[in-house]
Amino acid sequence: MSSAxxxxxxxxxxxxxxxxxxxxxxxxxxxxxxMFTKMANRWAERDCENEECRxxxxxxxxTRVTATMAHDSYLINLASPDPTLRARSIASFVAxxxxxxxxxxxxxxxxxxxxxxxxxxxxxxxxxxISEALAEVxxxxxxxxxxxxxxxxxxxxxxxxxxxxxxxxDAAHRGRVGVCVDTCHxxxxxxxxxxxxDGVLARLEDTLGLGRLHVMHxxxxxxxxxxxxxxxxLIAEGSLGEGPFRRIMTDERLARVPKVIETPKLDDxxxxxxxxxxRLRSYAE
Length: 285
What we know:
By secondary structure, the protein is of the alpha/beta class. The protein is 39% helix and 14% strand. It has nine helices and ten strands. The strands form two sheets. Strands 1-2-3-4-5-6-7-10 form an eight-stranded parallel beta barrel, surrounded by four helices. A two-stranded antiparallel sheet has the order 8-9. Helix 4 links the parallel strand 4 (107-110) and strand 5 (142-146).
């Protein structure tokens, strides 16, 4: 087994304010943490004030969390052909990057946009918007484009498509762009982690390079293989089952990649997340 520290945690709530998130991660004995820095289903933007940032940093330092990430707003569509929506999306994305910078977050996870009209044009618009935003907000936060399940006009269901977006990002900022692989999404998109785990990892390596893989979302799937649907299930209780998660947790190539769960919370978020993380830790032993 690797001597690298296990970076494992969950998406935690920021109810009551961003400084409340570290304690929720600590309750899970997490070493990685994902959160929203604003309400994800509203356009309303906000700045992180000095006292808020101070409290967040102070409370985070009291935990075992060493890998931090935000997930951006679900409303953002950097690939939109509609000029009004695209401008609003870029402004929201820039605001998200600014919050990540002042909070000192390592990663920003973002769904590639929906192209709506033409796929290649959508890829170009997405890359152009990313370049514009990264040029406006400097800092160490790495943008991680998340794999998608492949429904509708969503971009990012294939490693090749993510590579195409990254390749079109301005070379001056391309080093700040990587990927987040979601196990539910890639399985739903047609990457068979159950029967061809090594083949999927080889394709990821060949297309993007494992060096671009900065974050993993560990989620089982409520729907069958290649369903094109994004429906998360508890670890080892969906169509992926236990096998792929055991492989991931013992794969030396992935040892240093932070892994977070976004599985259903059921009636008690802390209890359910704790059970899921203990299950994953047991696979690594």
